[in-house]
Design a protein that fits this description.
With 273 residues, this protein is α/β, with parallel strands linked by helices. Helix content is 38%, strand content 20%. Strand 2, helix 2 and strand 3 form a beta-alpha-beta unit. It binds adenosine monophosphate.
């Protein structure tokens, strides 16, 4: 595995190879969720590039940028074992200069749900993803369904900017107790982790209702909220897969999304129906 931090060197290196590239952007502290993206990229491409970059522009003032978990050595090992060809490991200066052009998240879709609790977050995400896609020029880029709104906005961006890359969604990987894996789960104390299990439980209860032919979005939201209680709920939404509100679940075209604060830790989860 080659480790490259200079974007221009990486571009040069990839240009010479003339092979299909699968790209997995991450912020490091890698877990099985990231590994499933890498495995899918490995299956579908000749070259796999993973980036590890904790992108400062997607963190709001007062968020966890400074304490975001860092596991550089373990991450390098994980990438090597997962069959990654190139690890792109840039510094902030490799990616950003001063007074730059940036991508603005759409005014509506970028400022609801997580975008409402973190205004400006998705502009930072889209800007760095745009930069990374231009550096790597992959045939396919892999994103987790866990960050469903991010996946939706990135898919929109590549379409709206006529970019030549296929965005590949990858299923959520969960711990054995049902909690969706996240680099931020390390922030949770034992008690908080136990409380956080209400999140997958609530989504499971929602899918049970649906299996009993209860499709009413309001009823489903109420069931989820009652199970999450007394956690601090940021939102519970039943949306179509293009992120518009719906009154009834349509199987094959629905996402149920939950964002909850457990202590100061923001946890996202969702199910696709
Ligand atoms: P992050 O390092 O948190 O920015 O995540 C990098 C990529 O991994 C994103 O596309 C995430 O959606 C994806 N990801 C994170 N957690 C999971 C998970 N539990 N299952 C599947 N994909 C995930």
């Amino acid at each position: 595995m080659k480790i490259i931090s200079d974007p221009f060197m990486l571009k040069e290196h990839l240009k010479k190879s003339n092979k299909s590239i699968g790209f997995v952007p991450t912020m490091g502290a890698l877990h099985e969720g990231h590994i499933s993206l890498i495995k899918k990229a490995r299956q579908e491409n000749e070259i796999v590039v993973v980036s590890i970059f904790v992108n400062p522009t997607q963190f709001l003032a007062g968020e966890d940028l400074e304490r975001y978990p860092k596991k550089d050595d373990a991450d390098k090992k994980i990438c090597e074992l997962a069959g990654v060809d190139i690890l792109f490991f840039p510094s902030i200066e490799n990616i950003y200069t001063k007074d730059e052009a940036k991508v603005c998240a759409p005014n509506l879709r970028g400022y609801v749900l997580e975008g409402a609790s973190r205004p400006g977050h998705f502009s930072g995400v889209l800007t760095v993803v745009m930069k990374l896609l231009h550096i790597v020029s992959p045939a396919r880029a892999y994103f987790g369904k866990k960050d469903a709104q991010q996946l939706n906005l990135i898919s929109l961006m590549v379409k709206q900017f006529f970019m030549d890359v296929q965005i590949v969604p990858v299923d959520i990987v969960r711990d054995s107790d049902g909690l969706a894996l996240s680099s931020r789960n390390v922030y949770l104390s034992k008690t908080q982790r136990a409380e956080a299990l209400k999140i997958p439980k609530s989504l499971y209860a929602a899918s049970k209702l649906i299996s009993k032919n209860i499709f009413d979005a309001q009823k489903i939201k109420e069931e989820i909220c009652s199970i999450l209680d007394p956690l601090e709920i940021e939102y519970v939404e039943v949306l179509s897969r293009d992120f518009t509100a719906i009154e009834k679940v349509e199987i094959g075209n629905t996402i149920i999304l939950v964002e909850v604060l457990v202590g100061k830790t923001r946890l996202l989860d969702n199910i696709w129906l």
